[in-house]
Amino acid sequence: MTGKHRNTITRRRAIAVTGGTVAAGGLAVAGYQSAFADTTTETAASTSASADGTCMQLMSSVTEGPYYLDGALVRKDITEGKGGVPLTLRLTVVDATDGCTPVSGAAVEIWHCDAWGYYSGYTTANPGGSAPAESEEGDSADDTTYLRGYQIANANGVVKFQTIFPGWYTPRTCHIHIKVHTGGQKEDGTYEGGKVNFTGQLFFDDDIAEAVFALEPYSKHTGTYTELADDMVYDGGGASSGLLTLEPVHKKDPSKGYKGYLTLGVDPDAENTGAGSGGGGTPPSGAPSDAPTGTPPSGAPSDSASPSASASS
Predict the structure, then answer these.
(1) Dist CA 7 CA 86 (whole Å)
(2) N or C: which terminal CB in the chain sees fewer CB atoms within 10 Å?
(3) Radius of gyration (Cα) for the chain, nearest Å?
């Protein structure tokens, strides 16, 4: 096994899912429409310099974790029918080395688990605690690509995703994985070429996560949830460490969904794949034995991730 190992979403799979959905417990269409409505102007959202005119710091990088797949689709809605509390993400990519100017054309890639802690492509991995089986279809369930996708930043550096609030798995807190790519291009429905400038994770306030996990379908996954302060990856750095700003669609009803915002300060000249770097942190039992585990192989390239990168399951 090497830190460069990847599982790949084939062209056949990519084409197969462009018009399809995966049955997985429902949330009213009206609920999604409410959560994905966006009244904030893109210009305002892309403003990331502080009041004194200085730019935000670079985002903290971490390893990509054991559940990455190459070949995710370029698409705004990544749910593929997965049920859960609606979440719309609005992320702004800026150059933290050049006055926080927008990085137009950057490709932002995200992936995360479903409401019960399962990742597409790795559906036999046990999320810990007690959760319903992800699928009765055995290995064929791994042909799905739910909760994975790319979006290309507009002139203001802004991308938007429609997804669901992630669940959790042992021993991690609730999170979304993220990569920022530049220099490549959209091809055959995915993004190819270029380089990865940033590999990180997005995090959620504990109180909001607790309210969501009390709802269906999340409540069917029981066990010990890891809060932010006890997570092996989140370092307490707030926004620069990936902590999202979250706004409820309805203040008294978390089931209506949330809007998440974050500005990603990156260095477009840097390369940080996040593969095979950092220490500690094992994936849940049942994770594929050939997936990256966070331990760098001997002779791994020194630019694959920063020396201080955290473990990432």
Answers:
(1) 28
(2) N
(3) 18
pLDDT in tens, 82-129: 999 999 999 999 999 999 999 999 999 999 999 999 999 999 899 999
Q: What is the mean pLDDT of residues 136-148?
A: 74
pTM beyond 0.85, yes or no: no
pLDDT digits (tens, 9 = 90+) for 184-206: 999 999 999 999 999 999 999 99
Q: CA nearest 22: which of 149, 163, 144? A: 144
Cβ atoms of 208 and 215 within 8 Å: the answer is: no
Burial class (CB in 10 A: 0-12, 13-18, 19+), 191: buried
Give the type of residue at 19.
Answer: G
